[in-house]
Structures are given as C-alpha cells and as structure tokens.
Specification:
Order of helices and strands: EHEEHEHEHHEHEHEHEHEHEHEH
Shape: globular
CATH superfamily of the largest domain: NAD(P)-binding Rossmann-like Domain
CATH architecture of the largest domain: 3-Layer(aba) Sandwich
Structural class: alpha/beta
Strand content: 5-15%
CATH topology of the largest domain: Rossmann fold
Strand order of the largest sheet: 8-7-6-9-10-11-12
Number of helices: 12
CATH class of the largest domain: Alpha Beta
Number of domains: 2
Radius of gyration: 21 Å
C-alpha cells in the first residue's frame, strides 16, 4: 500500500525509513514530497490510498474532496493537533483520520522551559553581546523563578510535564483546565483556579491546550490588560490561542514583560520553510520579531530524537490498524 508523505523534512526521512523497515510486514511504501499539501499540490496524491500530512498542510474541504475522488481513504496525521483538518467534511465523505496524540510531552514541556529561561535571563541578548566582545551586564537582569506564580493553561500530558518542572523550580502553580487532573491537583503547590484569576495572579503564563472555537484568542486584549506587570507569556501549543495584534499592543505599551512563542496563528506557509532569500511578507510577524523581549521559534518544540521516533512508530501503527480495520478511539478522529 502506497503512502504519500507531504511536507517531508530531511530530519524525518531516516527515522521513518528505519521504522518502515521494522514494519515490513505491512507491505507499505512511502513516497516523500517536500511540498506542502494544498489544493494545487493534492494532485501528487492521486492513486495513494494513504496520505501522511503535517500541521502545516491544508486539509480543507476542497483538498479532502480532491483526495477522496482520487483514491485516498486514510489521512494519518503525524501530529497531535488537528485544527487544520475539516473533520466534518471527512465524516461526510467517509475519510478516516488518525493522529499521534502523544509523541513526547517532555519535548514540548522542556522547550517551553527553554524559552522561559532564555527570556528571563536574556540569554539571546547576552549571546549576541559576547559575540561582539561586549561583556557588559547592563540590561540583563532577570528574576528567580523560585517563589513566583506560574499559570498553566491546559493540564494534559504536556501541561502536566511542564507543571512538574515548575514545581521543581519551587514555583507556585495555578492551573486551569475544563477537565482538571486529580493527580496534578493533589501535588503541593498546585491549585486549579478560573482562567481569569490565573491571568490576573500569574507572573508567568504558559499555554498547553488545543485550539478550538472556545479557546481561539483566549488571551485577548481584555485578558492581557488584566495581567500582572512584566508577565512572561509562553505559547508552545497553537498560535490562535493568542490574539497577536493585541499581544503586540501590550508589548508596545510595556504591559507585557516578554513573550516566548513556538507557534504563530498565521504560520502556515512560513514555518518549516527557508525564507532567508524570499523575505517575510507577513507584516504582523515581522513586527513581532522586532521586539528584543520576544523569542520566536518555528514550531520546533516537538523536535527531539525521542519524539520523532515516537511519531514514526505511532503513525505506522495507525496505518497497520487501518489496514486491519482495528482503529482505536485514542488515535482515530473520524
């Protein structure tokens, strides 16, 4: 059975090839396409019963219709997020959709901590200074995370991993989740509170929740205005959780101390691409990048050897379950 693999990156191919060798009993082959899956490139998937897309691929109704008409019956997402997929259209035509619900919560949680420490201790600015032989410490003052209040929005596997790390730093954690974790709530120093209270009381706020109609722009102008002075905001989940224009206004006014972002709400067509020659056409992202107290990474929170290996194994496991008609509810969206 043939698999069309879109948005293929050099760091993925060796891992998927090795994993496929271990799954030789499936009788599958993978053809790698560097291009994103879009309405214009969907023709490349003609005759492929299985398509393997990533978070940057277009899985709108028009693309799904094209894939279905040309033989695709399974979308095996190699990601946890699925807000880029028109699931309703998939249900209507009969397309099966699987995902990788948990590849490595530690990878994303640790990357979030990396952004926090770099912003707090001004590591990115210090690095550039030292490269230019400027050894002054002026303007590089940070603060102890120990004793601070950290707000964690979303306490799934990644949120829980991040919370435990913050507890290790000696921080007090305020958590918000529509479905609280009894395990997490029992940890000393961790307390569930309403979202608005979390926003008003936290020195650091980290987002670890899916993007849904309810969570879209959950950090809007109103909530940003009610936050503590010099709060650090971290987002390694989905860009649409934050109203970027409102964030820029808050950064300009000095209301927000810093922002560490591994995602951006209009990242499609930008992240995972080399635009060093073509240039950046997104004026909002360009403005965001001008702030010295903003760190943006290009959706690399998942990028560890362990996570990539888990993604490959779970993706091909989903393919095996599809072939054997034994898909489970944890990975199967439709």
């Amino acid at each position: 059975m043939k698999i069309a693999f879109f948005s293929a990156q050099p760091y993925e191919r060796p891992i998927f090839r090795d994993t496929l060798e271990q799954c030789s009993h499936l009788g599958c082959t993978i053809d790698y396409f560097e291009t994103r899956l879009t309405k214009d490139t969907a023709v490349l998937a003609k005759g492929y019963p299985i398509v393997c897309p990533f978070v940057c691929d277009d899985l709108s109704a028009a693309v799904i219709d094209h894939l279905w008409q040309h033989g695709t019956r399974l979308l095996t997402l190699r990601s946890a997020g699925f807000n880029h997929v028109d699931l309703e259209r998939c249900r209507e035509v009969g397309m099966r959709v699987t995902r990788v619900p948990a590849y490595s919560p530690y990878a994303v949680a640790e990357h979030t901590v990396c952004l926090l420490l770099a912003l707090n201790r001004k590591i990115h600015r210090a690095y550039q200074r030292v490269k230019e032989l400027n050894f002054s410490l002026t303007g590089l003052v940070g603060f102890d995370i120990h004793g601070k209040v950290v707000g964690v929005v979303g306490t799934g596997k990644i949120g829980r991993a991040f919370t435990r790390i913050m507890c290790g730093f000696g921080a007090e954690v305020l958590a918000y989740d529509p479905f609280p974790s009894e395990e997490l709530g029992s940890i000393p120093g961790v307390r569930y509170v309403p979202l608005d209270q979390l926003c008003e009381r936290s020195d650091i706020i980290s987002l670890h929740c899916p993007l849904t109609p309810e969570s879209h722009h959950m950090l809007n102008a109103d909530r940003l205005a009610r936050m503590r002075p010099r709060v650090i905001i971290l987002n390694t989940s989905r860009g649409g959780l934050i109203d970027t224009r409102a964030l820029i206004s808050a950064l300009k006014s000095g209301a927000i101390g810093a922002a560490g972002l591994d995602v951006y709400e209009e990242e499609d067509g930008i992240f995972f691409s080399d635009l060093s020659e073509a240039g950046l056409q997104d004026d909002i992202l360009a403005r965001l990048l001008t702030f010295p107290n903003v760190l943006v990474t290009a959706h690399q929170g998942f990028l560890t050897r362990e996570a990539l290996s888990n993604i490959a194994h779970r993706t091909l496991s989903n393919v095996e379950r599809f072939i054997s008609k034994s898909l489970d509810s944890e990975t199967c969206l439709v």
